[in-house]
Amino acid sequence: MAVYELTLPLSDQDVETLKNGDTVYLTGVIFTSRDMGHLEIKKSLEAGKALPVDFTGSAIFHAGPVVKKIDEDWELIVIGPTTSMRMEPYAEMVGQLGVKAVIGKGGMREGSIKAFKKYKQVYLQAAPGCAVKLAAAVNKVEGGFWLEKGMPEALWVLHAERFGPLAVTMDSHGNSIYQDIKEQALKIIEAL
Amino acid sequence: MGAFTITYEEVYEWIKRSCTHVSEDSLEIMKEALAKEESAGARAMLSAMLENVAMADEQTKPVCQSPGFPTVYIRFGSTEGVELLRKYLPKAMVEATGNGYARPSIVHSLNRSNPGNNSGDGVPNIEYQYIPGQEYIELIVSFKGCGAELGNIYKTMTTAQLGSDLKGLKKLVYETVVNAGGMPCPPSAIGIGIGGQMDVAAKLSREAISTRDWRDENPDPQLKQLEQELLETINKLGVGPAGIGGSTTCLAVKIGMAATHTAICPVAINFHCWVARRFGVRLYRDGRREYLFGKEA
Asked: pTM value?
């Protein structure tokens, strides 16, 4: 179980090295996107509209921060992971965008396991409910798009330095810790 | 009898405190769990969680980015004083949001538009309960994370489905925990509402996990035994903190029960994230305050 310090954007090779149980710290630009952000990306793609950011090699953090506007700048107060399962219907789309890392909590299911293998992506579990600790690694809010959707749903562009620790829980080789745990637990229940 | 003195400033401080602290009962169980946990990954997660609580405390920041959904329980013996709380609570929530203690997360249910201040029809949800003869007003503010809501289930069971020795009911709970996996921010606490019809079971499930001290014992011996059995077995399923494995899956199981109709047994299972942002106080007419869930402010 290795510890990796990676700089964004990530390559296929960066991702393929990572195995479940490893720990990752990320440095560079991280985008947030959740329910309405994903829906907006989908709508934009269908309408042939350009996206506000380039997702190639990027990390999408399923999160909605608490931010405060001070003059023209945004100050990040706290940020933590939201439940990734809600974004499961977009697995294929996120793969096609060139996203390399999905950060969130709770993991994702079959569609994502397939997409992670096909597009060389990895799922990183952040510590749930640890919004102050995680925010400490974000040194700048570079901007936000789709603010009219509300603070949690906007696409935020964050610059982070050693963001983590993040646990690799769904690798690019078709493995999912969540899947393994579920199968084992259901066996225990059957045996009760 | 003197009048209840309740100021807006005081109510605002309670709301702010709920957002920036985790109640002592949850923390105490988390610390005990960390001492017993054997999985390295689970230990790392639990340590991060406890460290985060300390950081939020020091920096007076919201413990979690998601303020969750606010429900306030007001239990009273006479309506005097209650109107002030009803008036102050929504205003205090909007002010706390403006000051960065809570994220504006409340939206229109259908068009999903966000007013940007955590307000809306029915928010906060206030549950009033009249308790004849009670001389104090009990106020419990509870912000319950909504990732946790995604794992909740409701089922109208039958006598046959309950099974002998409640086997069917227990299996429903275990499967629900496994299906929820890491979604409800485990270690979770679980409220189970049993009885009435659908609406009653659902309300009981939230009330059980939001208003009881997570360290208490159910006064009903059968429910006490069931709560303990469910808790112990859930922690043998291996879901663990964040859903990545370990023996700390659940911090507490609390059951609320009402009678039901002979044809049915309504069951609601309600997850609470480990981040127990809540504040409980009993207000007395002489100005005295008695705090719930352990350590006071």
From this structure: 0.95
